[in-house]
Amino acid sequence: MLVRELVEEDTDCEQDLQAVVLTCLYLSYSYMGNEISYPLKPFLVEDSKDRFWDRCLEIVNRLSSNMLRINAEPAYFTEIFTELKSCGVASLMANNMAVMGCQTVPVVPCNTGTATA
Asked: Which GO terms describe its cellular component (predicted)?
């Protein structure tokens, strides 16, 4: 759900895509766990921790109501879980495209300034 809502078609580069996906993963682990004790380092791909935490706050502010619905509404949980199972996660590097969930996004090395579609 988080990746679906946050990964945009015009993602600038692979590192930006990785940063968003890893932030979503960190928040998912933190949300589902009993305590927030996950080490931060494996989820960082940028030099600035501030960018990571800003992204976390943006995600929480934007999607926390949907995250809370997962536990509050069994039908919503089933809907999200069914969507997750049907999409899966595949990686196709042919033509510099990656399929993430139900979205296809271009994969471009950072600082090249161009995307291949």
From this structure: cytoplasm; growth cone; protein kinase 5 complex
